[in-house]
Amino acid sequence: MKSIGVLMTCPMHKYLEQQLETHFNLFKLWHCNSSITEFLKTHQGNTIRAVVGDTNIGVDAELIASFPNLEIVASYSVGLDKIDLRKCEEKGIRVANTPDVLTDDVADLAIGLILGVLRRICASDVYVRIGKWKDADFGLATKFSGKSVGIVGLGRIGTAIAKRAEAFGCSISYFSRSQKPFANYKFYSNIIDLATSCQILIVACALTEETRHIIDREVIDALGPKGILINIGRGAHVDETELVSALLEGRLGGAGLDVYENEPEVPEELLGLGNVVLQPHVGSDTVETSDAMADLVISNLKAHFSNKPLLTPVI
Ligand SMILES: O=CC(=O)O
Questions:
Q1: What is d(CA 18, CA 286) in angstroms, rounded to the nearest whole number?
Q2: DSSP H or E run through 41
Q3: What is the residue range of the signal peptide feature (predicted)?
């Protein structure tokens, strides 16, 4: 497979890069200023038969049109929102992603964010480091155990979060397109009702046209001044302007965010808020999971180019 041209859209995990270099003829788009036009000045477009993208730079219509021999997109992500799936389907391009291997990590981080916001872990860490403990006790935080948790999207990650929250004695309810027969949790067909009924609302669904800004002013107000919003999905699930004003005006109790609408930009106003915990889109970024995701990308590519079924096919 050493002669098969594979294009990486941006730097990802070093191990993935090494593996791609070992098994394929790897091209790196960022060596051409991340510009396809630049790339095509020095390389033949028809050498590329596979593209590996991620949550930063995926595979859009321009890229698809530039590589006439493109056969497969193997995304180093579970999320598919940066891939033009319709175009891929139209052109008969296969698509694979990295589900399952990252579920635990993302669910762990969701719980970490809840604890971070409610127990004020980041603020109290700073309190100790800057020597304030010597002057006075830190003060009280908010209990997590036993709270009511609402989950938007009860897929693999949503279910893993639910299981973890159950272990904290939380009552679980969820909103999704349809009721899940396997789940023993209360189902809401209306997200406003879910937000009204829970204390912590967690966004864990895929980003699609239907779920863009699913967390709008109405949902935020339904969650209310004591409610906590956790987002480990995508920034665009939340109307960020509304989120910021709700936090500034005290209409929302707090937020734990791993994702933002214009990453890596984070609204300035959030940086000064003590009831907010911010992470730089690292839900699946552990050594173990990143290696497993990379292995899955390689296995999908090898399967495709050996005419075997993809391990985690999307299309
Ligand atoms: O956000 C992370 C992913 O989609 O894998």
A1: 18
A2: helix 36-42
A3: none
Q: Is 234 a catalytic residue?
A: yes
Active site includes 31? no
Mean pLDDT confidence for 123-131: 98
55 shares its domain with 151: no
Confidence of residue 280 (pLDDT cuts 50, 70, 90): very high
Binned at pLDDT 50, 70 and 90, residue 181 comes out as: very high
Residues 6+ positions from 37 with CB-CB distance below 8 Å: none
Which residue minimizes the CA distance to atom 4 of ligand 1? 79
Please report, for the domain that includes residue 85, its CATH number.
Answer: 3.40.50.720
> Is 177 assigned a catalytic role?
no
- Expressed in angstroms and rounded, the spacing between residue 180 Cα and the centre of ligand 1 is 23
Tell me which of 234, 242, 261, 304 is the catalytic residue: 234
Are 15 and 59 within one domain? yes
What is the predicted pLDDT for the residue at 204? 98
Mean pLDDT of all residues in 73-80 = 98
Distance from Cα 235 to the centre of ligand 1, integer Å: 12
Atom of ligand 1 nearest to the CA of 102: 5
Count of structural domains, the chain: 2
Whether 35 maps to a domain, the answer reads yes
Looking at the structure, tell me whether residues 90 and 110 fall in a common domain.
no
Residue 289 near ligand 1, beta carbon < 6 Å? no
Task: For ligand 1, say whether the CB of 103 is within 6 Å of any of its atoms.
Answer: no
Mean pLDDT for the stretch of residues 225-245: 98
Reported as a single tens digit per residue, the pLDDT across 82-117 is 999 999 999 999 999 999 999 999 999 999 999 999
Please return the burial class of 201, using the count of CB atoms within 10 Å of its CB with bins 0-12, 13-18 and 19+.
Answer: buried
List pLDDT tens digits, range 18-32. 999 999 999 999 999
